[in-house]
Design goal:
By secondary structure, the protein is of the alpha/beta class. It has a single domain, classed as TIM Barrel. The chain is built from 14 helices and 16 strands.
Length: 380
C-alpha cells in the first residue's frame, strides 16, 4: 500500500508538541519527523493527535431511550451511538452497559435490555457496521439480587474489557446528600415524590441483603479471568483501600479529595468526568474534577454522558491548569488505553502503533474536529 503523508501539523507526541510530519502505511504509523515536507496532506498548522479512548459512556442508553418511555430501533440506536462517538474523535470505546437497576420500572433498560444491548454491540462490531472500535464495560449494581448470575455468563465475552462495581444506595458514595439523591431519581428516573421514602428504604434493604455477597463473587471472578476492575464513586479512604485489596486498577469518579488522594498515591488510575470539567462542577454536588486535576490527582477523563465533552475537556485542562496540551491529552488517550491493556497498540502517536488519529482546529473557543482516521482510513 502506498504511504500516506500528513505534514505541517502540530503533532501532539507523548513528550512534546512538534510541527512536523506523520507517515503511515497499511494502517500503521511508520515514521514521525519534525519539519514540513513538500508532499502529502498539508495540515496548515492544525493539531494532529491520537484517537480518543473512552472507558465509560452511557450514550448507548440515551440513543435507545431518547425520552422516557421511548424505545428506538436497537440496530439504528447502536449505529447512531457509534456515529456520535466517532464524530467526537473517539476511536476506541468501552460501552458502559449497566446491569441491575436502582429503580423498579418495568421498562428498565438495565434490568431487561442489557442482553440485547450487548448483542447489538457484538454483532455490529463483527459485521463491520461501526467506525469506532467497541469493547464492553459492565457496570454492576451491587444491590441487585440477581447480579452475579447475570454477569458471570459474560465473563469470557471476547469484547469484555472492564467491570466496575457500583453502589448507588442513598446516603453514601455519589449520593451522600439525600436531597440530591431525591432530585436525581425523581427527575431522571421518574420515581414519584410521594413514593421516595419507600424507594429509599427499599434501596437500603437491597444493599444490606445483596451487596457484599455480589461484591465478593465479582471480585473473585475478575481475578480468575484477568478482567480489569474498577471501583465507582469512592468517597472515603476505606472505600479506596477496599478497592485496592480487591485488585482494582481504576477508581471511577471519586467523590472527595481524600478518596482521590488515596487512590492516586496507591497507583490506581483516577477517572473523572469531562462534563464535570466543562461545567466546572459535579451535578451531584461532589468534588470538582478541575480541582482534582490542579492537584495532579486525575489520570483519565471520561465523556460519561456527553461524548463531545471529551476533547473539549482536555483543551480546558491545558488552559486552566496550565498544562502543556500534549500532557493534557494523555488523560483522554494513552492513560485510558493503559487501563485496559491496549497501550501497546493505541493511545499515542508512536511508530508501530495503529494509525488511529484525529485532526483538530482550535480557535480558542471550542476545539473543532476536522477529520477522524481509524487504521489510516478516514471515517469521519
Amino acid at each position: 500500500m502506498q504511504e500516506q503523508i500528513y505534514t505541517n501539523y502540530r503533532l501532539l507526541l507523548p513528550t512534546e508538541e512538534v510541527l512536523g510530519t506523520l507517515v503511515i502505511s497499511n494502517g500503521i504509523i511508520i515514521d514521525i519527523q519534525p519539519g514540513i515536507v513538500s508532499q502529502g496532506q498539508n495540515g496548515e498548522g492544525n493539531y494532529l493527535l491520537a484517537g480518543l479512548v473512552e472507558l465509560h459512556t452511557d450514550n448507548l442508553e440515551k440513543c435507545i431511550s431518547p425520552r422516557p418511555g421511548v424505545r428506538w430501533h436497537l440496530e439504528a440506536a447502536a449505529v447512531n451511538h457509534d456515529r456520535d462517538l466517532i464524530s467526537s474523535g473517539i476511536t476506541t470505546v468501552c460501552d458502559a452497559i449497566a446491569i441491575g437497576d436502582v429503580t423498579p420500572r418495568e421498562d428498565s433498560l438495565r434490568l431487561h435490555h442489557y442482553a440485547p444491548m450487548i448483542d447489538v454491540i457484538a454483532e455490529g462490531q463483527a459485521a463491520g457496521r461501526f467506525s469506532t472500535e467497541h469493547l464492553l464495560h459492565l457496570r454492576c449494581e451491587l444491590g441487585y439480587e440477581h447480579l452475579y448470575e447475570t454477569v458471570e455468563p459474560y465473563s469470557e465475552h471476547p469484547l469484555l474489557a472492564l467491570i466496575s462495581l457500583m453502589d448507588h444506595t442513598p446516603g453514601q458514595r455519589q449520593f451522600v446528600n439525600i436531597d440530591k439523591y431525591k432530585q436525581y431519581y425523581i427527575g431522571k428516573h421518574g420515581v414519584p415524590e410521594a413514593k421516595m421514602e419507600e424507594f429509599i428504604n427499599m434501596r437500603l434493604e437491597y444493599q444490606r441483603k445483596h451487596a457484599q455477597e455480589n461484591r465478593q463473587a465479582l471480585v473473585k471472578m475478575t481475578q480468575e479471568k484477568g478482567i480489569s476492575l474498577a471501583s465507582h464513586d469512592d468517597a472515603t479512604v476505606d472505600h479506596v483501600r477496599e478497592a485496592i485489596s480487591e485488585g482494582a486498577v481504576l477508581a471511577e469518579f471519586p467523590t472527595t479529595i481524600d478518596a482521590a488522594k488515596e487512590a492516586h498515591s496507591n497507583g490506581l488510575l483516577v477517572l473523572m468526568g469531562a462534563p464535570n470539567v466543562v461545567l466546572g462542577r459535579s451535578h451531584s454536588g461532589n468534588v470538582s474534577a478541575m480541582e482534582l486535576v490542579e492537584l495532579d490527582l486525575v489520570d483519565i477523563i471520561s465523556s460519561d454522558y456527553v461524548p463531545r465533552s471529551l476533547l473539549q475537556s482536555a483543551f480546558l485542562i491545558s488552559q486552566q491548569a496550565q498544562k502543556p496540551l500534549y500532557e493534557a491529552i494523555k488523560l483522554i488517550t494513552i492513560n485510558s488505553a493503559k487501563a485496559i491493556n491496549l497501550d501497546n497498540e493505541i493511545g499515542s502517536l508512536e511508530v508501530g502503533k495503529k494509525a488511529d488519529f484525529i485532526t483538530v482546529h482550535d480557535d480558542g473557543i471550542v476545539p473543532r474536529i476536522l477529520e477522524v482516521y481509524k487504521k489510516g482510513d478516514r471515517v469521519a
